[in-house]
Amino acid sequence: MRAKRSTVNSRPTSPPFAARLRRLRASLRQHRFDGLLITYPNDIRYLTGFSGEASVALVTEKTFIIISDFRFQEELQPLKSRAEIVIRKGGMPEAQTETINRLKPRALAVQSEHLGAQSRVDLAKAVGASRVRDSVGLLATLRLVKDESEIAAIAKAAKVQQDALLATLKTIKAGQTERQIAARLEYEMKCRGADGLSFESIVAAKANGSKPHYRAGPEKTAKGKTLLIDWGARFDGYCADMTRVFALGSWPTKLKEVYEIVLDAHLAAIDAVRPGMTASQLDGVARALITKAGYGKEFGHGLGHGIGLDIHEGPRLFTTTKTVLEPGMVITIEPGVYLPGIGGVRIEDDILVTDRGARNLCSLPKDLQWATLHG
């Protein structure tokens, strides 16, 4: 069966960096912060497109400063119209202190979820403890809802990884190791334009499929056994994330039964996606079906998670998560059932929450016939 073409427009669009910065400044005013010291690289990338490491950014109501070093001086030149670039001569702590003392913010927020405890102590000592304020999730909250450029990048990443899997499937045969399959899949993704991998590929043969975060090893594929592949491409910094399960030749009876149950739960959850529902309500749709089928205890993780510049972003889809789904969120739907000593089934697509429901950014088939390999 041929994969359906995605209906998502994956043409590149320009990221609205100025709009993102305005939203951040509005959030700072709302929380009564004079500024924010940004130490998480992907948050800097979100505001600028710059992906170099060992750099920080400082945002106030009227200033936007990036502090970096000589290695990135040339890369930062195009940003000079949007930000002040400080190329430090000495260490980062000294450069931060000098810049903060120049701006004199009364209430400077720091990213407590990303700034180490000792670094915070040192910063407070250097600029004055009364100036430093803890904050959590200021940018993570802004990044929950994706703009058109982000959706296009995720859709392109999904297309790259789907094409790579289709090319890899033609080469899979009994007796290959998990590492051989993972290496081929990663090669095919990079050949098709992936920046890199969203995460280390999970290729789990036979009973290894029961380990949700397994990593490819020396186990070999075999006729009449399953092969779980959880893989992701990164395009323009943005992650996609999918999982499919295959059987070589014929399906083990128990896992064939489980596959149908998991597929029903997966499709029901996608069909149920609506803006305004909570993440826990969506998780409950899939969990109820799997529990009714007698495998509730074997579905031990959440239904999914947000994706973007990070492979795991908000919202988290779990039984206790009260986050309300909004149009523009991109989430994974990945129910799974895991049977130690036998194997596991997880089916995963990337889903855009729309004004009316859901749009699947993935297009690979999921039926049992397609998932049966005859090579």
Question: Can you walk me through this structure?
Answer:
Helix 5 links the parallel strand 5 (108-111) and strand 6 (132-135). This protein has two domains: 17-142, Creatinase/prolidase N-terminal domain (Creatine Amidinohydrolase, Chain A, domain 1); 148-373, Creatinase/methionine aminopeptidase superfamily (Creatine Amidinohydrolase), CATH 3.90.230. Helix content is 33%, strand content 21%. It has helices at 17-30, 41-48, 73-76, 92-103, 117-127, 138-142, 148-169, 178-191, 253-272, 279-292; strands at residues 35-38, 56-60, 64-68, 84-87, 108-111, 132-135, 196-197, 202-205, 226-231, 233-235, 238-239, 242-248, 304-306, 313-317, 330-333, 336-339, 343-346, 349-353, 358-360, 372-373. The protein contains ten helices and 20 strands. By secondary structure, it is α+β, with helices and mostly antiparallel strands. The strands form six sheets. The chain has a six-stranded mixed β-sheet with strand order 4-3-2-1-5-6. It has a four-stranded mixed β-sheet with strand order 8-9-12-20, with helices on one face. A three-stranded antiparallel β-sheet has the order 7-10-11. Helix 7 (148-169) crosses helix 8 and helix 9 (253-272) runs antiparallel to helix 10 (279-292).
List keywords for this structure.
10 helices; alpha+beta; single chain; about 20% strand; 2 domains; about 375 residues; Creatine Amidinohydrolase; Creatine Amidinohydrolase, Chain A, domain 1; 4-stranded mixed β-sheet; elongated
Annotation, overall tally of beta strands: 20
Q: What number is the mean pLDDT?
A: 95
Compressed to H and E, one letter per element, the order equals HEHEEHEHEHEHHHEEEEEEHHEEEEEEEE
What's the assembly state of these chains? Answer: single chain
Instruction: Find the structural class using helix and strand composition.
Output: alpha+beta
Q: What count of helical segments does DSSP give?
A: 10
Task: Please give the CATH class of the largest domain.
Answer: Alpha Beta
CATH topology name of the largest domain, in short, is Creatine Amidinohydrolase
**Annotated CATH homologous superfamily of the largest domain:** Creatinase/methionine aminopeptidase superfamily
* Residues in helix, %: 25-40%
Strand order of the largest sheet: 4-3-2-1-5-6
Distance between the termini: 15 Å
**What is the total domain count?**
2
Per CATH, the architecture of the largest domain is Alpha-Beta Complex
Poorly predicted runs are 1-11
Largest sheet: 6 strands, mixed
Strand content: 15-25%
